Q: What sequence folds into this?
């Protein structure tokens, strides 16, 4: 067979080129038929709407959960409790409401691994792993605390806090000087609602206890980029202790302004006034000097009338 043949118009055409061109035409015809068959069998799926949440994952208010979605108490990074490399307990807003916690001592009394000891009617000390807890933080900012010179820190009302984070063990990464006991981080509420919200409550209890609270949130402009919030509480109660009475007033206000989509400016003020009467300021010995057991009545109080 000759290598080349004369074709029409005087061109020389290679026989293998003619075969390839014919094969390509057949392939395109088959492919177009397959595509047409596929188009006939295509079904349209329903649309899926994906909604994102840009809220702070560490915030617990409004979640209705006893477990936070994330916490930055141990490392400064928003990690789940499983990812956090330390023993952490977060007392959420929902749990504090359900258990009606009215002081930091109540919160610590329900925290695993924390023991609470009261020196008298006003002062409490918290211990973890055999050591006294002296590392306190407000919104992640470290501050010192010494129960011997307490000014009511252990009696702060948790009504103004979104959560209380407790990291057991050394916490030098977040508090500077490490402490083998634990650290307590009190995280305040913020004005994060773009619509008006109000929460009012009133309650009565034994020993002539009366308590009222108010929590109001509202946007301060039409866009909701500037928001305000006010939280207040008043409590008046007596006690099983003789002639002891305490009045507590709490006020907290905060304004949050969104400067950019990722920057928020917060300005706040909180105030608490405790007015105890008949404070014991000390305890009683359990044993006499001769080794005999004392038998004090439970209501005995050495405080001034």
A:
């Amino acid at each position: 067979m000759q290598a080349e043949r004369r074709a029409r118009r005087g061109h020389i055409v290679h026989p293998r080129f003619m075969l390839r061109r014919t094969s390509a035409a057949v392939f395109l015809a088959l492919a177009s038929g397959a595509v047409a068959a596929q188009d006939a069998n295509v079904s349209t799926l329903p649309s899926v709407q994906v909604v994102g949440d840009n809220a702070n994952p560490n915030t617990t208010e409004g979640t209705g959960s006893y477990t936070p979605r994330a916490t930055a108490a141990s490392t400064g990074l928003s990690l789940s409790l499983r990812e956090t490399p330390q023993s952490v307990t977060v007392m959420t807003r929902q749990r504090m409401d359900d258990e009606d916690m009215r002081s930091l001592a109540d919160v610590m009394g329900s925290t695993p691994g924390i023991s609470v000891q009261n020196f008298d009617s006003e002062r409490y000390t918290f211990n973890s792993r055999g050591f006294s807890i002296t590392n306190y933080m407000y919104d992640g900012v470290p501050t010192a605390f010494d129960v011997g010179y307490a000014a009511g820190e252990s009696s702060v009302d948790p009504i103004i806090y979104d959560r209380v984070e407790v990291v057991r063990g050394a916490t030098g990464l977040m508090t500077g000087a490490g402490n083998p006991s634990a650290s307590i981080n009190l995280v305040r509420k913020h004005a994060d609602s773009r619509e008006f919200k109000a929460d009012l409550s009133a309650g009565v209890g034994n020993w002539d206890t009366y308590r009222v609270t108010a929590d109001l949130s509202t946007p301060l402009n039409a866009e909701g980029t500037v928001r305000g919030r006010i939280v207040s509480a008043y409590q008046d109660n007596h006690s099983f202790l003789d002639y002891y009475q305490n009045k507590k007033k709490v006020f907290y206000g905060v304004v949050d302004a969104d400067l950019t989509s990722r920057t928020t400016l917060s300005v706040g003020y909180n105030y608490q006034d405790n007015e105890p009467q008949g404070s014991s300021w000390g305890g009683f010995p359990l044993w006499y000097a001769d080794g005999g057991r004392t038998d004090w009545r439970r209501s005995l109080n050495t405080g001034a009338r």
